[in-house]
Write a structure and sequence with these properties.
This protein has seven helices and twelve strands. With 275 residues, the chain is of the alpha/beta class. It has two domains: 8-172 and 231-254, Ribonuclease Z/Hydroxyacylglutathione hydrolase-like (Metallo-beta-lactamase, Chain A, 4-Layer Sandwich), CATH 3.60.15.10; 175-229, no CATH class. A hairpin with a 2-residue loop joins strand 9 and strand 10 (138-143). The protein starts with 7 loop residues before the first strand and ends in a 21-residue tail after the last strand. 36% of the residues are buried.
């Protein structure tokens, strides 16, 4: 996937792993194995710099990060990931090539002719980082696993960041379908409740309060759906792209939910109805 000014490649995106590459020398998120990199003819000695947005396991493959460290790659990692490297691989703190990402929040990092700036975002109860990549007047935004594009308690949001030639933005779920799914599951359990009049927050609180008495399958389905609200919907992502993507810009949608990104296709012989 070639962009307007940088060769931007999505190597992996989703709950089973996340990793993107810029110009064959920079990784953003390292939720990928060395074997998977090699299968794409990408070799760790060629990677000069790598960033990890947050500590969740689908963005962090410690074995790959350790291998990058051994090859002298400059690593910009959340403190929680640095701690994991220390605990698993006994890497001493204070290594010259291992940088605490939090210390570079909103600060520019320069490599080759690129400027890369981490911008804090909120993802549940932790800080997750979006990354702005700039080369001259050309700009790319990478942002995934965020609750909102608006300012929040832990994050700056994205609305103030300007316009981009390339947007790689999370579009995790379909707002209409996921809501219909939750209402359908709960209606089977409590058919006399007007779930359509409840807010998502009210449903979440009710589910937590009744968690122990709900049938296992019901609570599992509702909980799994509610977890997706920790991410950005595809409607919100596309609305942001309409406002912030430059003319002739390129939009990539990241971290699509395998279950809630779109309504499942009806069986081939099943009669279809209008939405």
């Amino acid at each position: 996937m070639k962009g307007a000014f940088v060769n931007y490649i999505i190597l992996k995106s989703g709950s089973d792993g996340n990793c993107s590459m810029l110009d064959n020398f920079c990784l953003i998120d390292v939720g990928i194995t060395q074997k998977e990199l090699n299968q794409r003819h990408i070799y760790i000695p060629h990677i000069r710099i790598a960033f990890v947005s947050h500590k969740h396991s689908d963005h962090v493959n410690l074995a790959t990060i350790h291998r990058l460290f051994k090859e002298g790659c400059q690593l910009y990692l959340p403190q929680a990931v640095i701690n994991q490297l220390h605990e698993r691989y006994f890497i001493p703190y204070g290594q010259a090539t291992v940088h605490q990402l939090e210390s570079f929040s909103r600060k520019s990092i320069f490599i080759k002719d690129y400027k890369i700036t981490p911008v804090p975002q909120q993802h549940q109860d932790l800080i997750n980082y979006a990354f702005i990549v700039e080369q001259g007047h050309k700009r790319l935004l990478y942002a995934t696993d965020l609750d909102t594009v608006h300012p929040s308690t832990l994050g700056d949001g994205l609305n103030h960041l300007g316009f981009f030639d390339i947007l790689a933005l999370e579009g995790n779920y379909d707002e209409v379908y996921i809501r219909e799914f939750i209402e359908e599951v709960l209606t089977e359990y409590a058919p006399n409740t007007a779930w359509q009049n409840w807010t998502t927050s009210q449903i979440s609180d009710w589910t937590k309060h009744h968690y122990q008495i709900l049938p296992k399958e019901t609570r599992s389905q509702v909980y799994r759906a509610l977890q997706n609200y920790r991410h950005l919907s595809k409607q919100e992502a596309r609305k942001y792209a309409q406002k912030h993507l430059k003319p002739n810009g390129i939009y990539y949608e990241l971290h699509r939910s395998s279950q809630f990104y779109k309504r499942p296709q009806l069986e081939e012989n099943e009669e279809t109805t209008s939405p």
